[in-house]
Specification:
- By secondary structure, the protein is an alpha/beta fold.
- The chain is built from 16 helices and 23 strands.
- Helix content is 34%, strand content 22%.
- The longest helix is centred in the middle third of the chain and has 15 residues.
- It is globular, with a radius of gyration of 24 Å.
- The termini are far apart.
Length: 490
């Protein structure tokens, strides 16, 4: 595509008279630039792309999109906001791929990953080829790719969607973070279905207040558009049991479908029965009521299932297919994942890293635990400090032995993070072990037959960030090794 043709889609009075090279790619990382690239200067948290414009030109960039003048030998097009411009340019450069996909976005504090994986499984059961973008990875069909952010930048997103179109994907499902909505990473994504899981405290280091956080999540529903297209309708799938839903209903012109357990909803779960091996409930829908058995455990899991059911029903998946898929699902990596090393006690690894998710998981464990409950939990560094004492208090409220430890301390002193947590449990019994591996080992070696250990916070993650180092660390592997050592010492 020619540069001037590409620029014509910006529609913001951007004027440019000069060379008109052919653009063969768009890049925001100067290291990725190849001959013929258009380089977009993005201001990040730690680096400014404007400082790398010359490097981009040396690597072959034939034009630069910037917010200020940069001294280079190729055309420089000045725009007011390079992130907004990049979203527009990426969308058109890659042929507006989301217009050719059935796109489902899932937002909320907790449950995004599990809900998207359930939706993916249902569509695969319905013989649809799927694409998935989320916290764990990017997946196109059966091929997986690494991902840096829950929701990638607009350029990466559109390039990924184009790959999905080229590989004949029918349905794309993605997690949509509040950061991504606030930063405009999903500008240009033409969602058909937007799903809301829940809203509880998280990311206040970024959003500052719960009002701002709630507003950011609501952008997904507001951005479904104000047009009624009866050939391609838009749907907002909302959790009726969450107070934020009333605001999101007002934010969207799309058809609203609700789900819930406690409040009357379009899609409901009734007569719930839980055991240590799974959950059974009546799935109530406008089409029929069906008794469903799932291997997933906990009330929070039922909410995730209901959200997925609603998203798939409005996407015209038959109810019978949905139920078959739900009963097949084994679980999601790092979400209430059991670590079995032949021990006579239970070890569960879960991504719970917010007060609400930690409380939900511990409440579920308390329903089936026969003896003591241990919880190994920490709080991330350089993140919302206000939730640290709350997390500690919840751990002490629901576990018999709360063990506080490190969880990606980043640039902060791990001991300082523990001190913040301990403020929430003054005068109560707890154990602090700053080394996460030693904290897990302590719980494993102390546990007795019938006890349950919850290792919370990192879930599927395979790293630990300490200072500027990213070290290999997987809670599941550490727990399994500790179990092996204990078994060998007995």
């Amino acid at each position: 595509m020619k540069l001037q043709s590409l620029l014509s889609y910006l529609h913001d009075f951007t004027t440019y008279v000069g060379d008109n090279p052919t653009i063969t790619s768009i890049e925001m990382d100067s290291r990725e630039v190849k001959p013929g690239a258009l380089f977009v200067c993005i201001k990040g948290f730690t680096v400014d792309g404007h400082d790398f414009a010359q490097q981009a030109v040396e690597n072959g960039a034939v034009a630069i999109i910037a917010e200020r003048e940069v001294e280079v030998s190729v055309p420089v097009i000045i725009v007011k906001d390079t992130k907004r411009a990049m979203a527009v340019l990426a969308d058109i450069f890659y042929g507006q791929p989301t217009h050719q996909l059935h796109l489902i976005g899932v937002t909320g504090t907790n449950g995004k990953t599990t809900t998207t994986h359930i939706i993916e499984h249902i569509f695969r059961r319905a013989n649809k080829k799927t694409g998935l973008i989320g916290t764990i990875n990017i997946k196109i069909g059966d091929q997986t790719y690494d991902v840096k952010n829950t929701t990638p930048e607009s350029l990466v997103l559109q390039k990924t969607f184009k790959q999905m179109v080229d590989e004949n994907v029918d349905v794309a499902i993605m997690e949509v973070s509040s950061h991504a909505l606030h930063m405009g990473r999903v500008h240009g994504c033409d969602y058909d279905v937007a799903v809301f899981t829940n809203l509880t405290q998280d990311h206040l280091d970024y959003h500052r207040t719960m009002d701002e956080y709630r507003w950011a999540k609501g952008l997904l529903f507001a951005q479904l558009g104000n047009r009624f297209d009866h050939h391609k309708p838009k749907f907002a799938v909302l959790n009726q049991d969450d107070p934020a839903t009333s605001e999101y209903k007002r934010s969207t012109a799309a058809t609203v479908i609700t789900y819930g357990i406690d409040q009357k909803s379009d899609i409901m779960a009734k007569n719930i029965e839980m055991t240590t091996t799974g959950t059974t409930f009546d799935l109530v829908t406008p089409l029929d009521t069906v008794r469903v058995k799932t291997k997933l455990i906990g009330k929070f899991s039922i909410y995730n299932i209901l959200a997925a059911v609603a998203a798939c029903l409005v996407s015209n998946v038959p109810l019978a297919t949905i139920v078959e898929a739900i009963e097949e699902i084994q679980g999601v990596a790092g979400r209430f994942e059991v670590v079995d090393g032949g021990q006579n006690f239970t070890v569960i690894v879960d991504y719970a890293h917010t007060p609400d998710s930690l409380e939900n998981v511990l409440k579920t464990i308390k329903q089936f635990a026969k003896r003591k409950v241990y919880v190994v939990v920490g709080c991330g560094g350089d993140r919302d400090r206000t939730k640290r004492p709350i997390m500690a208090r919840i751990a002490a409220d629901y576990a018999d032995i709360p063990i506080f430890t490190s969880d990606n301390p980043r640039s902060e002193d791990p001991m300082a993070i523990l001190k913040d947590m301990e403020e929430g449990v003054k005068g109560r019994q707890y154990i602090s072990i700053v080394d996460r591996k030693e904290a897990i080992r302590y719980a494993v070696f102390q546990a007795q037959e019938g006890d349950v250990i919850l290792i919370a916070g990192k879930g599927h993650e395979t790293y630990q960030i300490i200072g500027n180092e990213v070290l290999e660390f997987d809670d599941r592997l550490v727990a399994r090794q500790a179990i092996k050592e204990r078994n060998e010492s007995c």
